[in-house]
Amino acid sequence: MAKKKATKKATKKATKKAAPKKAKTKRKPNAAFMKPLTPSAALAEVVGAKPLPRTEVVKKLWAYIRKNGLQDAKNRRNINADSKLKPIFGKNTVSMFEMTKFVSKHLK
Questions:
Q1: Does some domain include residue 65?
Q2: Is residue 25 domain-resident?
Q3: Domain range spanning residue 41?
Q4: Higher pLDDT, 8 or 92
Q5: CA-closest candidate to residue 60, choices 74, 72, 45, 80
Q6: Residue scoring higher pLDDT (16 or 96)
Q7: pTM of the model
Q8: Residue 87 within any structural domain of the chain
Q9: What is the pLDDT of residues 46-63, one digit of tens each?
Q10: What is the DSSP letter of 69?
Q11: Nearest partner of 89 among 25, 6, 97, 22, judged by Cα
Q12: What's the pLDDT score for residue 7?
């Protein structure tokens, strides 16, 4: 007795209907992040004295860190504080995740 091989038609799966696509809406930023906050005197030396949203403060802080090469060479998650950042962080080395915690204390 010879077994018959399955044909391509028999092995094909039933095609599924595509779900209707939802219209994409542009994502709105959270109002709490966009509220301008005034930096403290220590933070103003790095990011400027005028009120800025929290997101812009972090962007300017990262620009300062990259410009001055303050990221740790071995562990890139750590930031080595210089004379301007030490009053903000309170210690010599801070992880990038701790950084926002220390910066938020200097924003009002």
A1: yes
A2: no
A3: 35-108
A4: 92
A5: 45
A6: 96
A7: 0.70
A8: yes
A9: 999 999 999 999 999 999
A10: T
A11: 97
A12: 58
CATH number of the domain bearing residue 66: 1.10.245.10
DSSP state of 68: T
2 within a domain of the structure (yes/no):
no
Beta bridge partners of 71: 79
The DSSP secondary-structure symbol of 106 reads T
Nearest-angstrom CA–CA distance, 3 and 21: 45
Find, among 105, 68, 73, the residue nearest to 83 by Cα.
68
> What DSSP assignment string belongs to 12-67?
PPPPPPPPPPPPP-PPPPPHHHHS-BPBPHHHHHHH-SS-B-HHHHHHHHHHHHHH
Tokens 């949203």 locate to 53
Q: How many domains does the chain have?
A: 1
For 9-41, write each residue's pLDDT tens digit.
555 555 666 666 667 788 887 787 789 999 999
pLDDT at 98 exceeding the cut of 70: yes
CA atoms of 83 and 108, how far apart (whole Å): 22
